[in-house]
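Table S2 (text version). Query chain:
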Amino acid sequence: MAIKGKRNPEERTADPAAQEMLIRADELGIGTAFSRAEDMVPCNIGGAGMCCKMCGMGPCRLTKEGQTGVCGATIDTIQARNLLRAIAAGGAAHSDHGRDMAFTLKAVANGEAEGYVIRDVAKLRVIASKYNIPIEKRSPQEIANDLADFYLSQFGQQRGEVAPIIRAPAKRQKLWRDLGVVPRGIDREVVEALHRTHIGDDQDPEHILSHAIRTALADGWGGSMIATDIADILFGTPAPILGQANLGVLKDDMVNVIVHGHEPTLSQMIVAATQDPEIIEYARNAGAKGVNLSGICCTANEILMRQGIPAAGNFLHQELAILTGAVEAMIVDVQCIMQALVDLAGNFHTKIITTSPKVKIKGATHIEFDEHKALTIAKQILKTAIDNFKNRGATHIPRFQEELIPGFSHEYINYMLGGSYRASFRPLNDAIISGRIRGVAAIVGCNNPRSKQDYLHTYVTQQLLKQDVLIVETGCGAIAAAKLGLLLGEAGLDKVGPGLREICEAVGIPPVLHMGSCVDNTRILTVLTQMVEDGGLGDDIDQIPAVGLAPEWMSEKALAIGTYCVASGAYVIFGGSSPISGMPDRVADSDIVLRYISQGWEKLYGGKLEFIQDPDEMIRATLEHIDKKRAALGLVEYRPDRFGRSGDSQMLKLESLPLSERRAAVYGLKD
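Corresponding structure-token output:
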């Protein structure tokens, strides 16, 4: 999406804290992703997916009717190849994270990982039993060792099926097998994606896109699901906890350390180290009251939903946090880390500390993290930050922060709805069947400086809540809603439709449920699967009145996530521009692939992927799809006027009435 001219802070972001910091950046003459997006005019040919650079005979830019590349490749072949490569890269990023988590689980099981313990033995036993790993009369360490080996085998497996697909609805599994898209091994599908898209290989767009489905499934029902399982086993399955979000969580009188990236192995140990008496005393000796830890991006979600550690912001806050002048160190690992951080930090005292063997940034301090010496290295990193406290200059911390309740894992939602002895999704299904909840929307994904930060996330969320749509969120989208106060129970009192309000009041939940980091989108797949299993909403995911949205997407991971959700049966809407939009005004056949991932995939999988720029059109399409699915299931027509006369607020109103009127209202009786 091209940007015309320089925007003011209110046009760049919907977040007042971010607006304040962008004003400061302009005053200091410092560039950010927002200003760079205005200066950088995207290539309209590459942005439309019509450029091929797979070999040295090009790059070939196809802009005319009937034009082909030097090798004869057509626009639809080039676009399909580009999309598959992006999905492979996104799937590789999340799945490689899952592999690292499996290695950590193996080390913990063998007593080789300093500072880690198995925190959720119950989930360990449940997950192991799903794969027929013996659990009776065995220690958690023995079970964890076997589970780690089993999960590691899924990456290099060459034949057969990746095991976690058995957790999908039975009908969906059969569909995947019939269409030949069940992943054989996680790494194999990524390698084959690169092979198929090499010069002179796969040249049938539909065949290429079939492997895009297979590669994405290897991520969603493979690597990402493995990552989420192990994170819960090692660090605890999330449950609701009070937290805070936005830049106001930074403290003037403390050493401010921000963790940014995606690896919970690092961030969880940093959390533990900040609470160590040695580190607390070290900070006090440096003149600070202690260490104040916060997060950016998905690392923020990991420690927010388990320990209540505050989130300083989402993706586009990483530079703004440094602009406060109050951050002693930003500790980064993998994914979504801007190279611009080092140059920006040069204007202040902030140290950028890289920690992953996969990621180095020129000019940053590198302290490599190793889970075998995790606590020792975490303390070393924190001492480096504390030593930098004396170099702090003037600070400018925006006084904006909002409370939130994160931590709605699949397990907790199950308990929340049914209680300890009858945990069930039945009440959620019944609420949809009755029409109190019109449907469900999963709003996920990144920020993109080519759109107004947080605006699409929060606008779409607010409008759908008014239409009695229950929202689940992950990643940067969840933090956007948190900064607006939508992740609090009070938001259900005046920001939602009458039917959803009854549910929020009865269960005691916010109308927007925080389900974790971007890798935790697999939790949403698990929720949808259990909704199918509990009955009343069809026998497969594609029949549920639900939609997935990524309003401000920007990464290849988002494309992988969107594709595995489509393959699972979901209608997925991306905001912003399409990477395979083509240029229909110049090339008539440039929308073949765009049509296929919508209409073609819907015929095969019941799910479809569409790119819609206008937020009101996103909302219209979402509600239309939800109502279509309700009608197909034979559910009652959505009518909000039938609800809103029960719940806590109604009882409070009744208690204010005279006894006779109260009896008349409740029982139909008169004195």
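Notes on Table S2: Residues 666-671 have pLDDT under 50 and may be disordered. Residues 109 and 141 are 4 Å apart (CA to CA).
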